[in-house]
Amino acid sequence: xxxxxxxxxxxxxxxxxxxxxxxxxxxxxxxxxxxxxxxxxxxxxxxxxxxxxxxxxxxxxxxxxxxxxxxxxxxxxxxxxxxxxxxxxxxxxxxxxxxxxxxxxxxxxxxxxxxxxxxxxxxxxxxxxxxxxxxxxxxxxxxxxxxxxxxxxxxxxxxxxxxxxxxxxxxxxxxxxxxxxxxxxxxxxxxxxxxxxxxxxxxxxxxxxxxxxxxxxxxxxxxxxxxxxxxxxxxxxxxxxxxxxxxxxxxxxxxxxxxxxxxxxxxxxxxxxxxxxxxxxxxxxxxxxxxxxxxxxxxxxxxxxxxxxxxxxxxxxxxxxxxxxxxxxxxxxxxxxxxxxxxxxxxxxxxxxxxxxxxxxxxxxxxxxxxxxxxxxxxxxxxxxxxxxxxxxxxxxxxxxxxxxxxxxxxxxxxxxxxxxxxxxxxxxxxxxxxxxxxxxxxxxxxxxxxxxxxxxxxxxxxxxxxxxxxxxxxx
Length: 476
Hints:
single chain; alpha/beta; inorganic pyrophosphatase (n-terminal core); Diaminopimelate Epimerase, Chain A, domain 1; 3 domains; 15% strand
């Protein structure tokens, strides 16, 4: 099994969907409320409407047996589940017979692979393709749309945005791999994306470059992120001209030599103000950028990573439908709403991170792991984006991040970010998953993190048991 078999299965699914569209079938899309889910739903919705049919789309945090029954009650002809449904194929099959399709890139059990006689699960894992590095659900949805009609290759940029949202830029210099790379190359050939080595700063072609540096939150650089004065000062000391002919220069206007000078200036700042050496900064600050040539210069959608972050903010604000509208081209009204979501999340992150950094009791460094108390400063639904930001902080480099906060119903939510390729990190998340279940909590595991919800009465027990397991694993 390999790429050939994957594309054969994809063609079958595309032909099946083409038939449903031409027959005027009532199609329902249920997608995960993540950027990947939003992009996938956007691509499929755009294709279905463009071909003269209609569909409905809903977004859910997770698919459950109860939700499957609710969807069944809506009596649609065909169900498409995007980025959800893995592990629930029996429930889906019992409710919908053969009138369903699951599009996902999550790990798939051998049982689900063996029992999928109807070819209703389109997942790269079935064909020994790495769904965590080579293709996203958005990428799969794009390939289906293009297989139906090649004119949908104009949506190739959305698949790239989806891959970046799933943090699949794990190739050399933050490039994409496998099928993602092929889709990106296609978009470049079509003139939709401009791919080039550059500084990975926010607002690269619209803001003065010292402000771009201050607005860049990945990586988080304490003392520079959200601090325009310090950014201005280090740029001035570096000798890089800030203006040309009286006009502020953007980072995209810097020469290659000046870009290296800026990276060196940031690295020297970190060395001076950090307790540990500067780690991996060059790889975080520079790499392949993906500029969307059809978006207006200065727009928050101009850079594919910025676009994916905007979608993430819409989802966190419980407004994935706004992200969907932007993806399918409804910009006049919904772009301003998306920008509000982005500003809200940026403001929240700034408040939460600076609070954590100023209140040192919130941080407990245990060597190979860092525990962060987010009580009263972050909401449980913001925990993943906050944890992701903190994982890029230089002093936390190479450590497992454990962040907790109180939930809206007075339980506690923990998010444990795993380090790729780290056995000890995998061990921490595995133990967190087990302990949470033992204490009557709920845990959800993905390939990059574990999320645990622990009853208020069991928080101290959870902390104690997990910390003991961490201490034991670090001594081994």
